Structures are given as C-alpha cells and as structure tokens.
Amino acid sequence: MDNHSEGEKRKTRYTTVSIPVTLYERIRKLIEGTGFTSVSQFVTYVLREVVAEMEEEKLKSEAVSEEEKKAIIERLKRLGYI
Amino acid sequence: MVSRPHGGRLVDRTVSPKRRERLLEEARELPRIDVNESIAADAANIAHGVYSPLEGFMVQEDYINVLDQMRLSSDLPWTIPIILDVDPEDIVGVKDGDDIALYYRDEPLAIMRIEEIYGWDKKEYAMKVFKTADPNHPGVAKTYKRKELLIGGSIDLLRDPPEPFENIRLWPKETRVLFGTRGWKRIAAFQTRNVPHMGHEYVQKAALTFTDGLFINPLVGWKKPGDYRDEVIVKAYKALIEHYYPKEVVVLSVLRMEMRYAGPREAVHHAIVRKNFGATHFIVGRDHAGVGNYYGPYEAWEIFREFPDLGITPLFVREAFYCKKCGQMVNEKICPHPEEFRIRISGTKLRKMIMSGQKPPEYMMRLEVARVILEHPKPFIEEDEA
After folding, report:
1. Using 50, 70 and 90 to split pLDDT, how confident is the model at A3?
2. ipTM
3. Which of A2, A25, B11, B141 sees the fewest Cβ atoms within 10 Å?
4. pTM of structure
C-alpha cells in the first residue's frame, strides 16, 4: 500500500555531474527532433545502457569462482604466461 | 575490458572430476562412435567455450540457418556449420533422445545426447560454405569424403584430446583471466596457419600500436598438403617473439581447429572464436582463409558488413610489402612510390625458396624464423599425410 499522498510522493533525487560544454552542445543538437527532451535525459538513458552492460560483464567475469581463478593463475604461472 | 562471449555466456561442457568417473563408466556401456582428430578438436572446442554459444554439434535448424542466413536459429551470427557426420551403420538402433559415447584414439572422449539425426546435401554445403563445388578446393574435397548423416545434440566432455602443444594451449576461460591479469582492455587477435614473414610482423605490430595486447593464435590440426607443419609454425613464432616482440604485450597460444579454406565465411568464424577468447579486435588480412583463386582478395573484408552485431571489431589491414625507396615494410596507403620499388612477399615464393634450401632475404623473413624452417627436415605437410 502506498502510504504517500500524491503531493507527498518521494521525488527522484538527482545530483550533478560535469561534462565538457562542447560535448553538451553536440548532444543538444543531436537530440533535436528526437523523443529526448533534455541533454540530461539523453545522458541518463545512454549511461543506463552502458552501466547495464558493464554490470553484466562484471557478473560474467565473476562467474569464474575464486578457487577456479586461483587454479587458472597457477597454471598460467607454471606455463610462463604470468 | 575483454569481449563478452558470443551469445553472452561462456559455455562450459566439461565435467567435474567426480562426475567424470561416473560418466566414464556410463560411456563404456553406451553405443560408440569413433571420431577423427578434427571432430575431437571440435568437441573440445565446444566444451571449453571456444564455440560459445554452441553446447553441442548442430541440429538441423541451426545447420540450415547457418547455411542460408549465416546465423544460428537464435539469430546470432555464425558462418561455419559445426557438424558431426556418421555413417548409417555407425548408428544402427540409435534414435533421437539416446546417449552415445564419442571415442577418440580408442578412449571415451565425450557423451552426446542425440537430439536429431538428419541427412545433408554435401554439394549444397560446398556451394554455400565454400562458394564452389569444385573438388579441387581442399575444403570441398574434404567435405565430399565425409559421412552420409549428421547427428546433432549437446555433449559433455570427459577429457581433453591429447595435445602435443599442451604448454601453449589456452582455453577461453584462461585467456580471459590472463588478459585481465595483464590489465589489457583492447586485445587484437591474429589468426594464422603460416610461419611469420615480415608482412605478418608489420600487420601485427601495426595492430599492437593502438591496442593493449596482441593475441597470436595459430591454428594447429588438419591442413592441406603444402602448408607448414604445426611444429614449424609454433617454433617459428616462438623465435620471432623471443627476438623481436616485447613479451609483456604478446600472448602466443595455439588453437586446435581444422582449416576449412572457406575464405570470407571462415574469416567471420575465426573472429567469433577469438571473441570467445576475449579479444576485442580481430585482424583480417588480404584473402583471409582463402586458397587458390576461389575468393576475391578483399571478399573477407566485405562480408563483415553483414554483421553489425558481431561483437568484435575487425581490423582490415592492407597487404604489406617492402618498398625499396621507403626502405621498410609499408602498405599502399602509406607508400607513395610506384610498383617498380615494391617487393611483395608471396607465400608461394617463400615456399619455393625454402624447398630449394635457399635462405629468404631479411626484408622478407627474419633470420631466426628462416633458420627454424630450414633446419626442419620436412617443414611442409606432404601429399599422403593430409
């Protein structure tokens, strides 16, 4: 159950990150006439995509257990690769 | 960061030591199919994720999709069918859903769950994969000699096939850890079936200039007569790296996989495989995986346009040649001098020199590499061996 009335709903919190002005301008021109209403909205969209991909990648790399990774490193050392 | 495996997940169809004991016993009770070196290598490659996302030999739907669309039934790019051929008498009494044991050199290699047994048209295969039905093409000739039926299904690998180059054979799981340990994010993979000449060195070092590491991954296994022997290729590369490469930015590891000589299609296959090893870039040379005059010199570049979703970046490196005026290895893009100053390094010319015991000039081949080849009593595969 939602305990907040419409007016009391928790607002999404934002913070500020900096990007070069030149990049900002390029994005501003790029999104003209698209569904993106602001540079911030576009940047958030793109970052979410990139972050999701990186997180997935991180999960994949962690799919090798520590024990297995240790064994692989041992073999690589034995063979002279490390 | 290293490439994501093709299809998102690195396949692992190897079995744990505990399970292996039980499966080995089971295997001895199952119908048996003996496989050759190339199939054994494919089975190991499937199990160790080299062919991710494949979990086994292809069923008909994937086979047809690959032939017709150059994609798996899941729509992932895939250009060379990975198939297991059998004769009808090999599978008497065997039906879909049964388990069989694959044997290699009289030892159980893998257990396969048969999902489908189906026929194939070798001529159609040849036309689509090799773009020719000419039996003089080595890949086509080999296809015509294959057995009449195909069986598709997942496998569990019980043991790795014996590998004479065990000390320089790494699996994708291992290269991924290795690249990560070295901190490499951009990795250029180089496929080869040849000993290195100065043109190869130029191309590799050009790629290395703007990547973090170079992954040299020579194919060992079946090749046509006249090609260099595996041990010559390996020794030649070791000599080249020892004398001319910074070791911390190069990894040399062999891949046991037969050459198909399928030109453009095989170039894409080679790229996908290296993506699974973690490479982010793949060097595609002139007439990559070609043979004779079956493919145009840059056909293997053009095919990559059809795969924007490949997930590995092809590096199209122009043919390198020695320019007498520039005094070094160059390519068409960076050398302004006319043809009369250019000396092209032809593999055929090099072979002829070596066959007659002649040492190639140093602008063609490093002395240390030439020495390895000339000291070998039989550096080339002979007619009756292939």
Report:
1. very low
2. 0.87
3. A2
4. 0.86
